[in-house]
Amino acid sequence: MGTASSLVSPGDLIEDGYGAEGGEACEIPVEVKPKARLLRSSFRRAPRGIGASFKSTGSVELEYAAEYERLRKDYEIFRVSKNNEIASMQKKEAKLDDENKRLRAELQALQKTYQKILREKESALEAKYQAMERAATFEHDRDKVKRQFKIFRETKEKEIQDLLRARRDLESKLQQLQAQGIQLYDPADSDSDDNRTSITTAGTQCEYWSGGVLGSEPSLGSMMQLQQAHRGPEFAHSLIDVEGPFANVSRDDWDAAVASLLQVSPHVSQVLWSNTVRCYLIYTQETRAELHAFVQTHSSGLKRFCEGLGHFYLNVCFPEEKAALYTEERKMEIERSSVCVLLLKSSLSSFVVEDVEEAFVKCPDSRPLLVYLKMGDRKGECGGASSLSPATRELLERVNNADKTAKVKVVDHAGSAEDGAALIYTQLEKIIKQELLGLEMDDSGVVEEREDVYSGDVLWDLHDEQEQIEAYQNICSTAANHSFQKYIDGLNDMVAAPPPTPPLLVSGGPGSGKSLLLAKWIELQQKHSPNTLILYHFVGRPLSTSAEPVLIIKRLTVKLLQHFWSISGLSMDPCKILEEFPRWLERLSARHHGNIIIVIDSIDQIQNAERHMKWLIDPLPANVRVLVSVNVETCPQAWRLWPTLHLDPLNPREVRSVINTACVNTDTKLTKDQEKKLERHCRSASTCNALYVSLLARLLTHSRSSLSLEKTLHHCLSCQDTVALYRLCFKVALDALNTDRERNAMKELLCLVCASHNGISESEVLEIFSELSFPALSSLLHSLRRLLIVTFGCGLIRFQHLQACEAVMQEFLDGARYYALYREKLICYFSQQLSQNRVTWRVADELPWLLQQQENRSKLQLSLLNLFVSQNLYKRGHFSELLAYWQFVGKDKVSMAAEYFDALKEFERGCESEASMSKLANLYETLGRFLKDLGLLSQAVAPLQRSLEIRETALDPDHPSVAQSLHQLAGVYIQWRKFGNAEQLYKQALEISENAYGAEHCSVARELDSLSLLYQKQNKYEQAEKLQKRSIKIRQKMARQKGHMYGFTLLRRRALQLEELTLGKDSADCAKTLNELGVLYYLQNNIDAAKVFLMRSLEMRQRVLGTDHPDCAQSLNNLAALHCERRDYESAEKLYERALDIRKRALAPDHPSLAYTLKHLAMLYKRRGKLEKAVPLYELALEIREKSFGPKHPSVATALVNLAVLYCQLKKHSEALPLYERALRVYEDSLGRLHPRVGETLKNLAVLSYEEGDFEKAAELYKRAMEIKEAEPSLVCGKALSRLSSSGDTFSLRSPALLPHTSR
Q1: Smallest Cα–Cα separation from 529: which of 155, 217, 222?
Q2: pLDDT tens-digit readout, 140-194
């Protein structure tokens, strides 16, 4: 262990005895005895003694010295080593500093290079964008220059044609004067103005406005022929043509027939176009039980059925004990009713007799009629007849005598009231389905489904179209006494001005009569210029559907498309719809034989009208005129430079006329003093406009006013504008009501109409105000209509004028202060319907819009995620509206798609039955089509595939719905340009359709069209042509069997409505109606009925007008067409020859109608093989067209082609060749080198060269014809590919079908 002197403290250095380096002393646990610790302690602390040992002391010092020396050496070594290390580190530090400086310099250089590259990139991008903008501007300028050049060329051609026509007129007059021996003067010295545009009747332009293009009719080589498949040289598309409103409408094209019907349809009764099925119920005390059972048990089923088809259903009934209070209302409701039901037993009241007289005796053909006879307990005819009282038998006898057409349906019943109500329901359901809604039913009474309901493009909403038709008819039916003749003449002069013509502006103050003027002018144009295509749109309240710019332009575009074949698809993108409309207008105007007039009323009510209607500033095609009306205060500055027709306030004479007429009609007499007061009052601009004066006259003659005439006049004279006068109308209407409940209902009703999107229906009012009876509502609405406050449109109550809405806001809503309160009421009502799974078009129209106005984004998103609401909006074409709602919520397209996917998955969890799975498949398909229209192709595939899977699993792999899913999915693959996949899907869909429907069905034709278009895209023209020909045959056969369902229904309903107009005395107008009726029945393939009416028309015209009148020639022409249909060519030839003889004697030698008859007779000669007799007729027709239109008009070229075809059939090739060549030059100069007519003429030339043996020339001509055909690859059989269409491949020019709106 050692002694204590050998120990060292921890931390001291110890030295290795073997020469190794020392180390630091460590604490070593050494066991020390206490004695040793005591000795060491005393040794350290006590001073050394004198007597100590020298050896021990010296040894200690030597040890310390050695230790010190050792430590010093170690320190020196350590110091030197550390100094060396420091020097080395300093060198390294200097080296690293240099390296750091170098790297920093390189980094700065790289940063400068990066900034330079970034600036160059930004400059390049900016240059790219500028180049793109310059390119777009250049393209726009180029298109504008092309249009301007085209218009300039057409203008010059028209000027030449006008001069030629004037020259012919002068030469004709010159010859007449020379024949009379009258001395002639130099024409240069005369002031004749025969070259001006003539007016046939007051305010009506003649058939040719300012040239041949305007007012020309389709000629032999019509557009429809030239767009068919090549079958060699041929004549017009159909031998069977008819004259009148439906001239040159082929039954092979029902879309064109319906378009023509919508174009020329005069003002029909509200029953025909009403969106509400109004069932007027007449009952007695003895049949009250049947009425109660029907209303309580069965009417709800009819209501749900009508709602599913987009209609309202309303029971109209006046209690017998209160009938005397509502005499006027009963008469009005009978006139508006869709069907009348009479419930009788034995007793009768005077009110029942009055209603039966009005509904069943006076106008029995106006609507379907149903009589329910309760026969008591006795059965059999004799017993039943004996149970009727003499008064009842007499009444039934009068009904039977008035029922000349046997339209009244009679139900005899001797059982319980519930069974009788069931019988009434069964008959009413059949009447509504067949006669009112025009649905097809099988033998068991079940409505046949339309297989192609969802296969076409989503075009536009039927309700939007119906709203416009009703608006036009309501305005035209206004019994206004304003003198618009000078304005009508002014419009005629402005429209007849030579092109280029900017839009024509009709301006005036609010209520000046702009809408009425435009409607009356349209009415005259449709009557006197049947070849003119007039498209109109009446804008309603701001923010309403009728004021949506995208829907307006979309509707106008589709209306244009209805009148043409083979047009490429319509985009669903809102921006593209607005952008592409000028191109559509230019393209379609070039194909139209006549004028196109676009009329937009109150265009300034559209939000940002100047931005959305930029196409108005571009040059219009030569045969297009645009008329717009605006208020003077709100007209955009850029539009004020257009030609303007300003409506002045009424002068004192016109004011007196309006007021006196109203007083005479109501037996109201004004004193001289009162007349002077009115004359002094109606002198300012605000008190002598048309609306103010009309409203003033209504107030003075209001029969229900509690005020005297003098007091009413005093109150009226205190109103200085129309809004103030409307507020007085509200007070008068309120004073006329009997109870506070009715007054409150009137206020609430007006406020709800003001707060709604598009209005509110009568059935909705009755549901919201459950305490309000129908007679009270009818009386209230009758009073408000008489005071020009409200009207009906599309089954909805709306304000007649914007000033009425403004007056409601000031009077009842405190300047829109309480708007939110009434919107919340409507939101609660429609939300309740939504919670009951009643997803109608009204819920989809109103609820999202109301929530948007309330800025309730969370509820708006929930309503949109109700899949049936979104489906309803999308399938009715409200694409832009649906997108706007999602943008307001704050969702982009991708997140919106994700929300819909989640909602569909949640809905799918609750689907178990086959019906629910079918609805689910429809929802998936709608979502896929919606996403495809948005351009989200990758997201669109999943829902379409899921729809396909559901239909294959839930229904059957060979079910027609599976073919529909395959069809839609193939459309996505086409946009992806995956033609192989699309072809396989189309072939599967074709096979399924053929197995399900047979080889000749419209669904099969649809798949054939799609495959044909696909093959065209792949340049497989031979295969495409085969499929195209097969599709044409199927469509022609289907059209001749029953036609398009909606078109057939319209024609049938129109024919039934016209029949009642022919029951009056003989007149020219009645004969014209009979002729139109014959044409309608011809279009329905009812040849026997058509012949009857056309014969009646001919006989009446011969009695009224004489046998040589030109109208008789029209009837003869149409009868000849019917004989051709029956292949009775001999009779047809005689009739055509009689018509030709009349027209030769009655009309000018160059009249177009003469050429029209020549054409048909020549075609008949050709059909019967009398080619030699047909040649001079074709030559004369060519000569007439040259005189009428000039030598370079397309109609002349068409006549040249047909004459050349005839020469070819006579083997006179040398005479046919120059005619073909001349026609080719005319087509190229007038229509362009790539027009389809040029291609058809080249084909005919190629056939002629081939027959002449010049094969090289024939091949060259045919190649060029194929190049023209390839330039428009979408033109196939009236169907065309739409890259952004909802169907993905085809575009149908169908009228809007009455699509059932799916409800949950």
Answers
A1: 217
A2: 777 777 766 767 776 777 777 778 777 777 776 776 666 655 444 343 333 333 3
Strand locations in 140-275, DSSP E? 199-201, 204-205
* DSSP label at residue 959: S
Q: Burial, 18: exposed, middle or buried (Cβ in 10 Å; 0-12, 13-18, 19+)?
A: exposed
pLDDT digits over 478-521, tens only?
A: 766 567 888 998 898 888 887 778 899 999 988 888 999 999 89
Of residues 821 and 10, more confidently modeled: 821
At position 1228, the amino acid (one-letter code) is: E
Torsion angles phi and psi, residue 694, rounded to 5: -65, -45
β-pair partners for 506: 629, 645
The residue-averaged pLDDT of 865-875 equals: 90
Q: What are phi and psi of 314, to 5 degrees?
A: -145, 125
Of 668, 673, 723, 677, nearest in space to 697 by CA: 668
Max Cα separation, the chain? Answer: 188
Q: Which residues of 701-720 are buried (b: 16+ CB within 10 A; e: fewer)?
A: bbeebebebeebbebbbebe
Instruction: Identify the CA nearest to 685 among candidates 488, 840, 510, 867.
Output: 510
Residue with tokens 């040992």: 53
Contact 848, 861 (CB under 8 A): no
Average pLDDT, the chain: 77
pLDDT of residue 25: 42
- Look at residue 1019 and tell me whether its pLDDT is greater than 90: no
SS (H, E, C) 36-80: HHHHHHHHHHCCCCCCCCHHHHHHHHHHHHHHHHHHHHHHHHHHH
Pairing of strands 504-508, 624-631: parallel
Q: Integer distance in angstroms from the first to the last C-alpha of the chain? A: 105
Report the alpha-carbon angle 1023-1289-439, nearest 5: 110
- Of 354-368, 570-584, 956-970, the range with the highest mean pLDDT is 956-970
Structural tokens at position 597: 């007039």
Q: Judging by DSSP bridges, how do beta strands 199-201 and 596-601 pair with one another?
A: unpaired
Tokens of 210: 């300012």
Are 1045 and 254 spatial neighbours (Cβ–Cβ below 8 Å)?
A: no
Residue found by looking up tokens 């700065």 in the block: 108
Averaged pLDDT for residues 50-79:
76
Q: Which range among 185-194, 374-383, 841-850 has the greatest average pLDDT?
A: 841-850
Amino acid at position 536, single letter: Y
pLDDT at position 1149 over 80: no
Length of the chain: 1304
pLDDT higher than 60, residue 4: no
Residue 444 CB neighbours (<10 A): 5
Helix, strand or coil for residue 627? strand
Judge whether residue 251 has pLDDT over 50.
no
276-323 pLDDT per residue, tens: 899 999 999 889 999 999 999 999 999 988 888 888 999 999 998 888
Q: Is 106 buried (19+), middle (13-18) or exposed (0-12) by CB count in 10 A?
A: exposed
Per-residue pLDDT at 421: 92
HSE, CB side, 13 Å, CA atoms: give it for residue 428: 31
- Tell me the three state secondary structure of residue 1031: helix
CA 107/CA 119 separation, integer angstroms: 18
d(C-alpha 1075, C-alpha 1078), whole Å: 5
Return the SS3 of 1019.
Answer: coil
Which tokens is 1047 given?
């078109």
List, in sequence order, every beta strand (DSSP E) within 612-732.
624-631, 644-646
Contacts of 334 (CB under 8 A, 6+ apart): 280, 340, 355, 358, 359
Residue 1004 reports pLDDT greater than 70: yes
Dihedral sign, CA of 947, 949, 955, 958?
positive
Helix (H, G, I), strand (E, B) or coil at 1073: helix
pLDDT at 21 over 60: no
CA-CA-CA-CA torsion sign (125, 131, 135, 138): positive
